[in-house]
Amino acid sequence: MGVLLALSAGAALVPGLVPPVLAADLALLALVAVDFVRSGDPARLTLRRTLPERVRLALEFERTLQLAGAPPGLLLEVHEAHPPSFEALDTPLGFPERARFDEAGRATLVRRYRASLRGRFAVGDLRVRVRGPLGLFERQKRFHGEQELAVEAALLHLRETLLFAASERWQDLGVRTLRRRGGLSEFESLREYVRGDEVRCIDWKASARRAKPMVKSYQVERGQELVLLIDCGRRMRAPGGAGEHAAWTKLDWALDAALELAAVALRQGDRVGAAAFERGLVAYVPPAKGARTQALLSGALFPLQPSERDGDLAHALRELALRHRRRATVLVISDVADPLSLEEQRAALAAGSRHHRLIFAALDDPALRAAAEGEGDDAVLRAAALELVAERARSLRMLAASGARVLDALPAEAAGPMLAAWLDERRAG
Q1: Whole-angstrom Cα distance, residue 150 to residue 64?
Q2: N or C end of the chain, less CB within 10 A?
Q3: How far is CA 178 from the centre of its chain?
Q4: 295 plus 364 within the same structural domain
């Protein structure tokens, strides 16, 4: 193309160059026309985009794009509109996806995304560009349409938590084994007969093998009720992670830990419910059993975002007491109030403890704890952080005087202490 421009400029000065330059221009025009015809019409392409309906926060997921109806071998470029909270992992920001149509005139593009915010989002319009076989002409078409997907809590440690739930150690901690007194239950083990055992529990084959009476021992699980009460107020807007999870708020970690604990409790046959509060309850799922309950809990909690106002724990506990009158273990996931509101928070826990067994999980500030532990050279900052840590410890002791069990943990590490506290309550209940 540059050569032709130079020749055209030269032809203006040398008349003898006009015929060859004109012939070259006509040849180029013919090639462009051929490239245009052979490039096909992008408007005739058939397009199918496949996305999962639900994905996990900060975990990778795939979008598949299938196009058909173009001449083989053509180069394809696709620009896709996606939310700012979606990171495209395969291509740099702003660059298109590229592929070639195969011999059947089909092309498949797979793109990996990762979402940094929870909620409902949509992947939007597609701009498809097809380049002719000679690379002289490009045609493009915009395909309008959006596909929604839900970004839910990541449940980072769910697999490990469920494995622990199925272990013998969990059974020792979380399930009471009782002597069977009628009715059906799960077989646990064989043991020697003791006076008072029911004759129908004797295992005659085992007794013959061991030459002494042996009875079947059964276990009975005591199903209990757990309600997860999650603060969506201003305090839960604070950052709660580091590294690849630096964008996670305390609320993100709270939902992750709550849903993992729900999965464990449901696996053990307990009834599990959840509620979220700001001024009052903004979400509520009554306690229930079964696999479907986990989906109901996740569906109710994943869209929640922290508010700009403080959560009203007293109001939330009163409303919960009206909605759920049976005594249950209520796990409140929040943080310590500021000194001016601390007495209200303590009084709310004291009043709530009269209706339910309360566990109050206070999510600490990772940056504050790091500063107090001396991660940095700023002595003034460390002194201020140490004073705030001491004030927090005093506040926690004051809240513990309410009668609720009080926990203090970093957001990313809160699931373990919450699980242990719930196990203690379940064993004692």
Answers
A1: 17
A2: N
A3: 38
A4: yes
Q: Quick one: 141 and 205 in the same domain? A: no
- Residues 153, 57: contact at Cβ < 8 Å? yes
Distance CA 26, CA 412 (A): 69
Task: Single out the residue of 320, 361, 398 nearest to residue 236, CA to CA.
Answer: 361
CA distance 418 to 332: 10
126-131 β-sheet, strand order: 97-100, 75-80, 126-131, 138-143
Residue 184 domain flag: yes
- In the predicted structure, residue 219 carries a pLDDT above the cut 70: no
Tell me, yes or no, whether 213 and 273 share the same domain.
Answer: no
Axis-axis angle for helices 250-267, 158-165 (nearest 10): 30
Regarding whether 279 and 208 lie in a shared domain, the answer is no
Q: Are residues 136 and 233 in the same domain?
A: no
Q: Token pair for residue 26?
A: 């006509």
Total of domains in the chain: 4
pLDDT, residue 42, reads: 79
Q: CA 262, CA 251: separation in Å to the nearest integer? A: 16
Measured between alpha carbons, how far is 259 from 228 in angstroms, rounded to an integer? 9
For residue range 122-163, list pLDDT tens digits in order. Answer: 999 999 988 876 666 678 889 998 999 999 999 887 877 666
Sign (positive or negative) of CA dihedral 25, 31, 37, 40: negative
| Average pLDDT rounded to a whole number, residues 279-304 | 93
Which pLDDT value is given to residue 186? 47
What domain range includes position 10? 2-38
